[in-house]
Design a protein that fits this description.
Layout: E1 3-9, H1 13-24, E2 28-35, H2 42-55, E3 62-64, H3 78-81, E4 99-100, H4 104-114, E5 119-123, H5 128-136, E6 144-150, H6 165-169, H7 171-178, E7 184-187, H8 189-193, H9 199-205, H10 210-219, H11 236-243, E8 248-257, E9 268-271, E10 279-285, H12 287-298
Parallel strand pairs: 1-2, 1-5, 2-3, 3-4, 5-6, 6-7, 7-10
Antiparallel strand pairs: 8-9, 8-10
Length: 302
């Protein structure tokens, strides 16, 4: 049986890989894509989601979401992903008619309440839309199977010494989500730092299929952590985890988000000794297995 999912995203080069898998893998039933301000502004993240929709000739609805965090100032990662958010590949021209007019939060509520099967939410950007959904329509919780998110760190950060980018962008939203009472899986910097796609592997993608060519070009313009060693495709881990959870090492913990600290804003405080864990924290994956999982998922794309 296919896994029904919703992708909440801020494309983003690594988001492009995750969305490619979500749109094409036969084990996923993607209900909708919602966009959020994050790697770049909401106009660009939405345009990028529409570019991927057009690239794959998909009819999956795309809904624009929050244009700014709940309380924090806007930050972006255009220095990592390029000015457009997906630099390096020339996508087909987008059509504004491909964008659904319903706001992402309203659309998620409608999809969830109409679903006969609980749906997994996969936020791979800041958690603004998800927090707004849970605050505004708490009745949807019954229809959410789990939240598998990309964000956080049990060790060091990447945008500050302690904070990971997605959480730092909207720590107040993250704190709401981590205390929602829903089953949560946090796929953060720890698993990303346990493996990466080497530059040789990135070059291999170019000969697999059209999607591999597209990702190859994007990754060549990606300037994430440890770029000299390889590419950390953070967001793709969420989909690969759902496909192959047996290959990932996990630990249970209580995770809280620092919202007040002057030097620690956005830190994910992970307590593995808590008697009341609220999150499954994904810690690592074997590097050689990760490469094969990534390529196997890619082969389902055009």
């Amino acid at each position: 049986m296919k896994q029904p999912i919703i992708i909440d995203t801020d494309p983003g080069i690594d988001d492009a890989a995750a969305i490619s898998f979500a749109l094409n893998h036969p084990e996923f039933d993607l209900k909708m894509i919602s966009t959020v301000n994050g790697n770049v502004g909401i106009e660009k993240t939405t345009a990028n989601a529409l570019k991927l929709k057009r690239f794959f000739n998909s009819d999956i609805p795309v809904h624009r979401g929050a244009s700014q965090p709940l309380l924090s100032d806007i930050v972006d990662a255009s220095d990592v992903h390029g000015e457009s958010g997906m630099e390096g590949y020339t996508f087909p021209e987008i059509n504004e008619s491909d964008l659904d007019s319903t706001h992402a939060v309203e659309a998620m509520r409608d999809v969830l309440l109409k679903s006969e099967t609980p749906i997994t939410l996969i936020p791979i950007g800041p958690l603004t839309n998800i927090a707004l959904l849970l605050l505004t329509y708490p009745e949807v919780k019954t229809f959410i199977k789990e939240i598998v998110l990309m964000g956080g760190s049990a060790s060091r950060g990447n945008v500050t010494p302690l904070a990971e980018f997605n959480i730092y962008c909207d720590p107040e939203a993250a704190q709401i989500v981590f205390n929602s009472g829903l089953p949560l899986t946090m796929i953060g910097l720890d698993v990303a730092r346990s493996s990466s796609l080497t530059h040789d592997t990135i070059n291999e993608l170019n000969s697999i299929n059209d999607t591999g060519k597209m990702l190859h070009q994007l990754f060549k313009h990606y300037r994430g952590d440890d770029f000299e060693k390889g590419i950390n495709v953070y967001d793709a881990y969420t989909l690969l985890y759902l496909l192959h959870p047996e290959h990932f090492d996990v630990r249970e913990a209580d995770v809280q988000i620092e919202t007040d600290g002057k030097l620690t804003k956005g830190a994910s405080v992970v307590d593995f000794k808590s008697q009341f864990p609220n999150t499954t924290v994904v810690m690592s994956v074997q590097a050689n297995i990760f490469k094969q999982m990534f390529i196997d998922a890619l082969k389902y794309c055009k």
